[in-house]
Design brief:
Blueprint (H helix, E strand, L loop, with lengths): L3 H17 L5 E7 L19 E4 L2 H9 L8 E6 L8 E8 L2 E9 L5 H19 E11 L4 H12 L4 E8 L14 E8 L10 E5 L14 E2 L4 E6 L3 E3 L19 H11 L5 E4 L6 H8 L3 E6 L2 H13 L4 E6 L2 H7 L4 E11 L6 E12 L8 H13 L5 E7 L11 E4 L8 E6 L5 E8 L4 E7 H8 L1
Parallel strand pairs: 2-14, 2-15, 3-6, 3-13, 7-12, 13-14
Antiparallel strand pairs: 1-15, 4-5, 6-8, 7-8, 9-11, 10-11, 16-17, 17-20, 18-19, 18-21, 21-22
Helix pairs in contact: 1-3, 2-3, 3-4, 5-6
């Protein structure tokens, strides 16, 4: 493929795919920090919007959202970082018991080649346009592999006159070759839906020649350790480092984007209370940044590891959000039927002369039932060793709902692994109205295991 004629067919087939895609109902599975799950209310906003994380196929989610009138034209910012058509498989690098394991993150190989890749991307862009606000911007993050094709497709879908910028994100990391210059940048295409998009001009330093003062009349100059500079409107080439191996924000997820990059994007085209979306959310940088900056978010990914990485990241920063799963596939395959099993000890001790009790929950051993088929033997060996010697090293996060209703996990206690490790004991005082307790445990590979028990059983076991 390589002609304009082929691109026309891509768009036609993508439109047919959109028409044939059925919408689905997503079921709420989890609600974390409900009092914080809504963004700051803007003075001109009709209502606050809940932060939402979806686990499922993004095209079915997009179709479901676009079919509802109340969702169309509501997204102030859409940022997507889809696969780049690199024809490679990507692993997450995860630390377990002092060693690194490599876990499959996502596959960027396409059976139908470039044509199939562009058709899938275009179908999703068609639906995203329906959801983009008239004053919003969409940011499509790619690189040299297909950005030239994507530019033509975006011109067709959004209009040539609605092209706003091509941002060049340049960085130091990456390899180099002897047959070409080192490829050290990504391309981010920015489009609007109308001419009335929001844009907040950002400023950056511009150093004077030889770092000496100009002393021009009316021009304010500043000085730092390098020399003299002025503040100018930001250019379309952004020098931002990739997420380094020792970076505090590093999750280990493949192709993780830095928060500084997303902070700049969010700041330049949204205000507190605006709704942002990332339908290829990966490690969750956009929802993490949006929540911290007072914006609402919609995030989606079909990968178990991506979803749980995002949930853990949001929990660690105290964000509020809801988690939805696609029915029936993901509820049966990815959520309730786990690839691992954890031992959980629960006890309940009453207080003399009181109707309240102290609940103690302690994590025990871990058993991994099925390791990913694409995992290398070295990583499998590390995991098997951890199961025998330090099973809690395989747990990334866990949470407890002390008032489980049998449907939605609403934890009041959340524990996420950090540099100091992971707490393995939870204690909480409960009243006589405590009926059922649910514990959710996520391992380092994104697998989830639930244990829920009635309080009557916990009391009887303690006796």
């Amino acid at each position: 493929m390589g002609t304009l004629k082929d691109l026309t067919k891509v768009i036609e087939q993508a439109q047919r795919q959109v028409a044939n895609t059925g919408s689905v109902e997503f079921t709420m599975l989890e609600e974390v920090n409900p009092m914080k799950s809504r963004s700051v209310r803007r003075a001109d906003a009709e209502e606050c919007v809940d932060n939402k994380m979806y686990y499922g196929d993004n095209i079915r989610l997009l179709k479901s959202l676009a079919e509802r009138e109340e969702n169309r034209g509501k997204l102030k910012l859409i940022y997507i970082d889809p696969p780049f058509f690199s024809e490679a498989r990507y692993d997450a690098v995860i630390r377990v018991s002092g060693s690194n394991i490599r876990h499959p993150a996502y596959d960027d190989k396409w059976q139908q080649g470039l044509y199939g890749y562009l058709r899938q991307l275009t179908a999703r862009l068609i639906l995203m346009r329906e959801l983009l606000a008239d004053d919003g911007l969409i940011w499509l993050h790619l690189d040299w592999h297909v950005v030239h094709y994507a530019r033509i497709i975006m011109d067709e879908l959004f209009g040539e006159k609605n092209f706003v910028n091509e941002i060049i994100w340049t960085y130091k990391s990456g390899g180099s070759g002897r047959r070409r210059f080192a490829r050290k940048h990504d391309n981010i295409l920015v489009y609007s839906k109308t001419k009335h998009y929001t844009f907040n001009v950002l400023k950056e330093k511009s150093y004077n020649r030889q770092f000496k003062p100009y002393r021009f009349k009316g021009v304010k100059e500043y000085r730092d350790e390098l020399g003299w500079y002025t503040m100018v409107n930001m250019k379309d080439v952004w020098h931002i480092d990739m997420v380094g191996r020792t970076s505090a924000e590093r999750t280990g997820y493949a192709t993780q984007k830095p928060e500084q990059l997303l902070e700049r994007i969010v700041e330049c085209c949204t205000e507190p209370g605006d709704l942002c979306a990332d339908f290829f959310c990966g490690s969750g940088t956009l929802p993490a940044v949006a929540a911290r900056m007072g914006r609402s978010f919609i995030a989606c990914d079909r990968g178990r590891l991506a979803v749980e990485s995002t949930i853990g990241r949001l929990c660690a920063q105290g964000a509020g959000f809801r988690v939805y799963v696609e029915e029936p596939e993901h509820r049966t395959e990815g959520i309730r039927k786990s690839r691992f099993e954890a031992e959980v000890h629960m006890s309940m001790e009453g207080f003399p002369g009181s109707d309240k009790s102290l609940v103690t929950i302690r994590l025990g051993s871990v058993r991994e039932h099925r390791l990913p088929p694409g995992m290398e033997e070295k990583s499998r060996t590390v995991i098997r060793k951890a199961v025998r010697n330090s099973p809690l090293d395989l747990i990334e996060a866990w949470s407890v709902d002390f008032d489980y209703d049998g449907r939605v996990h609403r934890p009041s206690a959340v524990f996420v692994r950090n540099k100091k490790g992971l707490e393995d004991v939870c204690r909480q005082i409960v009243g006589p109205d405590c009926r059922r307790i649910c514990v959710k445990i996520a391992d380092v590979m994104g697998n989830v295991f639930y244990v829920d028990r009635p309080c009557t059983q916990i009391r009887s076991d303690a006796q």
